[in-house]
Structure prediction request, 255 residues.
Amino acid sequence: MPSPSLSTRDLTIRFGGHVAVNSVTCDFHPGETTVIVGPNGAGKTTYFNLISGQLPASAGRVEKSGEDITRLSPSARAGRGIGRAFQLTNLFPQLSVIENIRLAVQAREGAGWSLFRPAASRRDLIRSAEHYLDAARLTDRADMPAASLPHGDQRKLEVALLMAMEPDIYMFDEPTAGMSLDQAPAVLDLIGKIKADTTKTVLLVEHKMDVVRALADRIIVLHNGELLADGPPAEVMGSKIVRDVYLGTATEETA
Ligand SMILES: Nc1ncnc2c1ncn2[C@@H]1O[C@H](COP(=O)(O)OP(=O)(O)OP(=O)(O)O)[C@@H](O)[C@H]1O
Prediction:
C-alpha cells in the first residue's frame, strides 16, 4: 500500500453544541476510490468541506501527502492538488466550452504562462484542452457558450475543467445528482477514467447504490458524524451495523 495521499486525524467540527464531524481518522491512497455513505445529516458533506477547506476544523488535522494543510484556504488546498468540482471559480459562462477548458489548462500552468510565449506552447495548450474535451465527450459542444449547455453537459464540463487542473485528489459530491438516466453514464464513465489512473485518489459522497457499486473500491460509513465502518464494499454493505443504520434501527450506543 502506497503512503496516504490524504489523511484526516481526529478531524472534528462543532456547530454550537452539535458535533457534525466527530474525531474522524482516515487515510486515503492513490489508486483508490472511496465512497462516503451514510444517512441524511450524517456529516458527509461537512467532512468534505473540512477536507477542501470550506469549513475550519474545530479540532484535528487534514494532511496532504503528510503535510499539515488544516489551516490553509480552499484555494491553497486546490493549489496542492485537492480538486473539488464546485471549487471551480474559473468558469466563464459566455465563453465557449473549449475556451473554458483552455483557460483551466492555462491556469494550471500558472504564472509561468505568458502571452509572449512562442506560439508552439499555445498550441500545446489547445492540444491539451482538446484532450480533456474529448475525454469528457464534449467535442460536438466545443464551440457552444458554456452557459447554453444542457445540465448534463455542464456537469461533464465541470469534470473536464477539474481534470484540466490535474489534481491528485478528486472530490465528487453526488456527481450525477439532478441528471437524467441517459446522462448519468457519461459522467460515471468519466470518473471511471480518472479512477483508472492509479496516481489519483478519488473520494465521492454518494447516495445512489448503483453509483456506489459501479465505482467504490472502498466504502466508509459516517453516522452521527462518526466513522462507523470502513472496508471493501461487500463487507461494509453486508455488515449488520450498517444495515441497521440504513434501516434506521441503530441506537446512539451501537453507533
Ligand atoms: N453550517 C452549519 N451550521 C450548523 N449546522 C450545520 C452546518 N452544516 C451542517 N450542519 C449540521 O451538521 C450535520 C451534518 O450535515 P451534513 O450536511 O454534513 O450531512 P450529510 O451527511 O451530508 O447529509 P445529506 O446526505 O442529507 O446531504 C447536520 O445535522 C447539519 O444540520
Q: What stands out?
A: The chain has a mean pLDDT of 88.
